Amino acid sequence: MTTTLPAPPAIRRLTYADLPQVIAIERRSYPTPWSLAMFVLELSKPSGICLAATDAEGAIVGYCICSRYDTVWHIMNVSASPDHRRQGVATGLLAALFERVEEPDPRFTLEVRTSNAGAIALYQHQGFRAAGLRRRYYQDNGEDAVIMWRTPATLRGTLEDIPNAVDPLKRVV
Q1: What angle do CA 105, 109, 112 make, to 5 degrees?
Q2: What gap in Å lies between CA 25 and CA 79, rounded to an integer?
Q3: How far apart are alpha carbons 129 and 159 in whole angstroms?
Q4: Taking CA atoms, which of 15, 40, 58, 100 is between 20 and 30 Å from 47?
């Protein structure tokens, strides 16, 4: 028996016209989804990078929202449609994001729920390392967020270029 893998998604710039599909994915994915206004605000920022992953028919299957603050790129939202998870959508979006940042030694950061082991593993595979904790970060249940960074040092396996970094995932409980 032969299994056919789905084609990798195409990655392109996210547009305002994509937002109805993005909102539908957002509502299916998160207990406290971003509002339309939040997506519009992020798309309006000239320094941000907003990407869409599409299937063979052109439907949105994932998206990535990243804003630049001073010298740091903050990945605000990465999501794959529940029907397209574990098919390389988020990996493709992150790879495309890293390619589009045209500067030497870019620094990326993000927050992720401490309970989201799948996302933490994805980010670790992409060179991110846990470097701190934001207590009660998520409003829906008060869950903590792991602060993760992808820097030249994390790509070498250290946290030496992140001030006050402490890996909360290595903390003994």
Answers
A1: 150
A2: 8
A3: 8
A4: 58
Q: At what angle do helices 89-100 and 117-125 cross, to 10 degrees?
A: 40
* Close Cβ partners of 49 (under 8 Å, ≥ 6 residues apart): 64, 66, 68, 73, 97, 100, 101
Which sequence positions are flagged as catalytic? 111, 123
What tokens does 20 get? 């109805």
DSSP conformation class of 104: S
User: What gap in Å lies between CA 111 and CA 101, rounded to an integer?
Assistant: 20
- The two tokens of residue 152 are 């030249």
What residues of the chain score a pLDDT lower than 50? 172-173
pLDDT of residue 163: 83
The pLDDT score that the predictor gives to residue 172 is 44
Q: pTM here? A: 0.90
Q: Using CA atoms in the order 98, 101, 134, 132, what is the torsion angle rounded to 10 degrees?
A: 70
DSSP string of 31-69, one letter each residue: SSPPPHHHHHHHHH-TT-EEEEEE-TTS-EEEEEEEEEE
CA distances (Å), 63 to each of 31, 78, 118, 173, in order?
A: 17, 6, 17, 35
